PadR family transcriptional regulator
Amino acid sequence: MTFQLGSALLDACVLAIVEKEDAYGYSLTQQVQSVMEISESTLYPVLRRLQKAHYLTTYDQPYQGRNRRYYQITEQGRIRLLELLKEWQMYKEKVDCVLLGGNLDG
């Protein structure tokens, strides 16, 4: 079963991956696909949007005679990732409470 989740979670996944190490598009796609269904054609607009928001920067590095574009998190990206992680934790706790039976007030 696949849950459809919003762009904020996709942003958080991308930023979290790139925070650990710089990554290129195909590599990012593979890592994101381990937790949600996404294609490269879906991911590249996300990467451009995160770059436009100054959460990511890019640099090219030669690889087998071609340039490979790597994405690197910025300080603004790290701040945004922390915000997204806090939002995710609150959301996750509420969903867990409903699914696992608990009290939303506490």
